[in-house]
Amino acid sequence: EKGGYEHFMLKEIYEQPLAIKDTYRGRLLVEEGIIKLSGVEDNMKRFLNADRIIIVACGTSWHAGLVAEYIFEDLARIPVEVEYASEFRYRNPVITEKDVVISISQSGETADTLAAIKLAKSKGAFVFGVCNVVGSSIARETDAGAYTHAGPEIGVASTKAFTTQITLLTMMALRLARAKGTISSSDYRRQLQELELIPEKVKEALKADKHIQSIAETYKDSRNMLYLGRGYNFPVALEGALKLKEISYIHAEGYPAAEMKHGPIALIDENMPVIVIATKKGHYEKVVSNIQEIKSRKGKIIGIVTQGDVSVRELADHVIEVPETLENLSPLLTTIPLQLLSYHIAVMLGKNVDQPRNLAKSVTVE
Ligand code: F6R
């Protein structure tokens, strides 16, 4: 059942090239320049008339929502708010009939997300579900939706659910951008072509596994770790830190790289490993200067970089390469080494990777 892998989590990490393909199969028609998502097509007016999109989710799905905020605003020019479902539902939020709510949930059973949907519906908002589990409560409760088709995710730590959610949300943003005319036809084509190449590039990123294992060996006894990223990769930093916390029980925090100087930089000394996402596109020079700030305080730097990178390599203690892609697609690649790093550290520490303490796969209590 684990297909020769030692844990479900590792199997699911390695399934990502196929899972992402399954998400876009039959929906992404690159030659024709078409994205086909019937849940979006059938409700195009609601999307185009929306004053804003509110995304509600929890945990890793909330991180996918944060990536989606950058994508929807950047490509489709629709204002987006991303909310923890548990906060949204209890704070008397302003919701109108002109709002579109997108709920994101792997299991489709998360109690807080389900309650947030019911609240939004009661105020007349249109609610669109992005779920993995077919026929789940959230899939049934929403007005329309699209499945990620990632296949069953058994490991409690979410991996392929995250990358397939981002794949689906990217397709939605591109479809809406095309309908709104906020993207040029050449950029649109380029996006489709690049998205289709992502599974191959994820495969390429997975090849760093052995190298990541040796980095895991070096840092497995750390008490804390910091994860930094900017722009599209800020939510990836949050997700990397969550993965480490939940399966290895090492304290970790994700931060926008530029926020360092407003507090967390005080934590840095020779015992603090800092994982910095520093891919070529997207604030590269700024991230390099953030890395210099860490280095001058003797922090240990693990850079997630684009293949062939020179500048970060000169400064960092270790680099892990991922293939080049469009900036907005980079989270699909930069997430991979962070998943592997936390997996290997947890295994080396003898933790129960697939069923970490205190956690459940579906959180059906609020
Ligand atoms: C993290 C993790 C949790 C879930 C969260 C939401 O690895 O598994 O944070 O992401 O409980 O679950 P779903 O997506 O099923 O609503």
Automatic annotation (TrEMBL):
**Example of a GO MF term:** glutamine-fructose-6-phosphate transaminase (isomerizing) activity
- List the active site: K361
A single GO BP: protein N-linked glycosylation
Does the keyword section mention Metal-binding? no
Catalytic activity annotation: D-fructose 6-phosphate + L-glutamine = D-glucosamine 6-phosphate + L-glutamate
General function of this protein: Catalyzes the first step in hexosamine metabolism, converting fructose-6P into glucosamine-6P using glutamine as a nitrogen source.
The record's note on quaternary structure and interaction partners says:
Homodimer.
| Record's protein name | Glutamine--fructose-6-phosphate aminotransferase [isomerizing]
Q: Which organism is it from?
A: Gelidibacter algens
Q: Which gene encodes it?
A: glmS
Give the stretch of the parent protein shown, with its full length: 250 to 615 of 615
